[in-house]
Amino acid sequence: MARRIRDEAFRMEQERGRYAPHVRPINEMVDALRDQDGRGWMPHVAPWHGGVEARALSILRDPGPKTQEGVGSGFLCIENDDPTAELQVQLFEGAGIVPRDVTPWNAYPWYINRSPKAAEIQAGAEVLKQLLELMPKIEVVLLQGSEAQDAWRRLLKTHPGAVRERTLKVVSTYHPGRQALFTPDPEERARRAQHRVDSWRTVGDMLRGAAGEP
């Protein structure tokens, strides 16, 4: 079921769980980072997701308008009321992944609603280091889009120790937004769309394999 945030009961459940134990460390980090260096607002991670207990980290570009408080939910959540979130629900379901397996994040976690600049991606990589320190159970990182991939490269270059002692598997694919398919070649559009599906399935297979599931 997509866009569940429209349901008042679901939305209130997320509000009540904003500082539930599994998301409290991340959302308290968000509180501390809001307006850091004048960067502005940053959404919390919805308790619908795994928070610090998650086994997979999904990184996109930047928070969309529907993550804003007042305009949207105030959360990073695949049940937000927008097309990108709706596609994420479909990809989760197709890969056999439950929301609590994953924590959503962004290469640039502050709200800007545009492509982040190089310096902003670097700032995002610094936050990503902090996030990983809060998530001891991470096994798989899914990089969705070029900005996410850039942030990960910067993290590895600037803070190699953040992942040196961890056996993380990294999967890269296209961003789930419509712009990722903007090409006049229909075969290329189809290839990119299928790449996203296949990448999520790979993540699902990795998680099931790590858990010893058939």
Could you describe the 3D structure shown?
- The model has no long low-confidence stretch (mean pLDDT 94).
- This protein has a single domain (4-210), classed as Uracil-DNA glycosylase-like domain (Uracil-DNA Glycosylase, subunit E, 3-Layer(aba) Sandwich), CATH 3.40.470.
- The longest helix has 25 residues, at 186-210.
- It contains seven helices and six strands; from the N terminus they run ααβββαβαβααβα.
- The protein has helices at 8-16, 24-33, 83-95, 118-133, 146-158, 161-164, 186-210, and strands at residues 44-45, 56-60, 75-76, 102-106, 140-144, 169-173.
- The chain is globular.
- With 214 residues, the chain is α/β, with parallel strands linked by helices.
- Helix content is 42%, strand content 11%.
- Helix 4 (118-133) crosses helix 5.
- The strands form two sheets. A four-stranded parallel sheet has the order 4-2-5-6.
- The two termini are 25 Å apart.
- Pfam families: UDG.
- This is Uracil-DNA glycosylase.
- InterPro entries: Uracil-DNA_glycosylase-like, Uracil-DNA_glycosylase-like_sf.
- Residues 91-179 form the Uracil-DNA glycosylase-like domain.
Describe the secondary structure blueprint for this structure.
Elements: H1 8-16, H2 24-33, E1 44-45, E2 56-60, E3 75-76, H3 83-95, E4 102-106, H4 118-133, E5 140-144, H5 146-158, H6 161-164, E6 169-173, H7 186-210
Parallel strand pairs: 1-3, 2-4, 2-5, 5-6
Helix pairs in contact: 3-7, 4-5
